[in-house]
Amino acid sequence: MTNGESATRIQVERRARILEAGLDVFAAEGFRGATVDGIARAAGLSKPNLLYYFPTKEAIYVALLGGLLDMWLDPLRALDPSGDPLTEMLAYIRRKLLLARDFPRESRLFAGEILRGAPEMGEMLSVDLRELVDARASVIARWMDAGCLARSDPHHLIFSIWALTQHYADFEVQVRAVLGRARDPWAEAEAELERHFRRVLKPDAPPAPQDRP
Amino acid sequence: MTNGESATRIQVERRARILEAGLDVFAAEGFRGATVDGIARAAGLSKPNLLYYFPTKEAIYVALLGGLLDMWLDPLRALDPSGDPLTEMLAYIRRKLLLARDFPRESRLFAGEILRGAPEMGEMLSVDLRELVDARASVIARWMDAGCLARSDPHHLIFSIWALTQHYADFEVQVRAVLGRARDPWAEAEAELERHFRRVLKPDAPPAPQDRP
DNA sequence: CGTCACTTTGACCAGACGGTCAAATCCAGA
DNA sequence: TCTGGATTTGACCGTCTGGTCAAAGTGACG
């Protein structure tokens, strides 16, 4: 198997294992708190061996972040401008919540990066993220203009969706501490968020002024 | 000035300076990222001198957290069970948002601690925090029963308030990246949050069935 | 002025950490 | 079986970090 230009089967497998381990450790300890030794141990490799696949600790971190933003924005990207507005929005909210539920490590890694001021992500945020959000915000604005959704600022509406969904992943300890052991945060969140956003999104005055003769 | 039992004027002043500096550094770099030297420099002291006032780095951190939770819960504590429900809730939301706006370092410090699983705060969360939230949640539940507020789960309603208000402080870089430089996140947030929660809180059916003869 | 508790500091230490390197091991293909 | 690149590793290095310590400085009060 002469290596034409890129990865050996082992390289592919090892890199994946390292990223998986890195996600675990970075999400739990943060960038500064994570140690190369710790990641290597979690990946079942020796430290020098890990450094054979990624030159630095930072390289692992940025590799993770790179793949992350895409995944994180997928639900928003999937918002269909030609669908039914309320259905589309509620589906987006649900997708986002399930993403946070099923990938809490990714959510926390992302949150940690932003909390620290996004030193490794600044560019992505103000370019890729902003473009996508602006595009979707204008779709939402159109829906509001058409009277299909209650009027509000689309950007802040999106923020509210992010804030609420990620809260359950990023602040899970707090949520659990408050709710106690008997309750199921995620199941409740799913129901409550739908109720919450139905209220927020439902247009208040039905846009039919002349059907009461 | 023989020291009867507690602090010298210098001790008071130095401890305060150290906590202030610690807040700065911990909020920006996280617990692991912060260095004793860094905090000492920010406080204008030498490292051993700082360690003369606080025995360890952790001691500074927990001292900060201790004072923090109280401050952080004040707006919720101030919720008046005998006030007008909608007014009280909107006032609470506004207080919480202004707190996040005026004390973003505190907000981020808190967020970082929770993100990491609240290793130094577990107790406080599941005791003090939980008690207060349970108490206020039952007040809110009573308001809902009386038809003064739309029905929903009070705990999750509180979560939604926390999530939305703190989002603007903790994820400020992201918010700014998306909104661009021309817009003022905090001013907009104030207006949007009021609109948002008016919708969420306003009871849907006015509880007066017999005043249309 | 002398005392004594309070305060400050330079020098130092042990451990942890990110990263390097040369040597060893593995393994697919000839 | 031999070969050469891919892979793995133990030993090592310089730096950083949390924390210690003995000694020096400071100032209020007798």
TrEMBL record, chains A, B:
One GO MF term: transcription cis-regulatory region binding
Domain HTH tetR-type, first and last residues per copy: 12-72
Gene3D superfamilies assigned: Homeodomain-like (1.10.10.60), Tetracycline Repressor, domain 2 (1.10.357.10)
GO biological process: negative regulation of DNA-templated transcription
Pfam family, one: TetR_C_3
SUPFAM superfamilies: Homeodomain-like, Tetracyclin repressor-like, C-terminal domain
Keywords from the UniProt entry: DNA-binding
InterPro entries listed in its UniProt record: Homeodomain-like_sf (IPR009057), HTH-type_TetR-like_transc_reg (IPR050109), HTH_TetR (IPR001647), Tet_transcr_reg_TetR-rel_C_sf (IPR036271), Tscrpt_reg_YcdC_C (IPR013573)
DNA-binding region positions on the chain: 35-54
PANTHER family per UniProt: HTH-TYPE TRANSCRIPTIONAL REGULATOR RUTR (PTHR30055)
Name of this chain's protein: Rut operon repressor
Annotated organism of origin: Jannaschia seosinensis
Gene: rutR
